[in-house]
Amino acid sequence: MRFLPFAGAAALAMALAACGDTVTEQALFGGAAGVGAAAVTGGDPLVGGVVGAGGNVAFCQLNPHRCLR
Questions:
Q1: What whole-number distance in Å separates Cα of residue 19 and Cα of residue 11?
Q2: Contact of 51 with 10, CB cutoff 8 Å
Q3: Of 9, 15, 59, 69, which one's alpha carbon is 20 to 30 angstroms from that of 49?
Q4: Torsion angle of C-alpha atoms 59, 55, 2, 8, degrees rounded to 10
C-alpha cells in the first residue's frame, strides 16, 4: 500500500512536467510538482521542490521538442 502514494505523486509530476515557455516557468512548474509529490509521499517539501525544479529544467533543456513552446 505504500506504493500508491508514490504512484500518485509520479503521475502528478508527469502531468505537470515539461510545462513552461521560459527557464523560470519550467523551474516554477517543476518545483510545484516536486512540492506536491513530496506532500503526497510524506517527503520534505523543500527537497521535493528543488529536485522537481531542477529535473523539469534539465528535461526541458535536453528535450526541447517535448516541451510546450
A1: 15
A2: no
A3: 69
A4: -60
- Cell numbers for 53: 525544479
List CB contacts of 37: < 8 A, sequence separation 6 or more: 9, 10, 12, 13, 43, 48, 52
Distance from C-alpha of 7 to C-alpha of 5, rounded to nearest angstrom = 5
What is the rounded CA–CA span in Å between residue 58 and residue 4?
Answer: 27
Q: Residues 4-60: pLDDT tens digits? A: 566 666 666 565 555 678 899 999 999 998 998 898 888 999 999 999 999 999 988
Question: Which runs of consecutive H residues, i.e. helices, occur in 1-44?
Answer: 3-16, 23-41
**Amino acid (1-letter code) at residue 38:** A
Cα–Cα dist 44/26, whole Å: 21
Among 6, 24, 9, which residue's Cα sits nearest to residue 61? 24
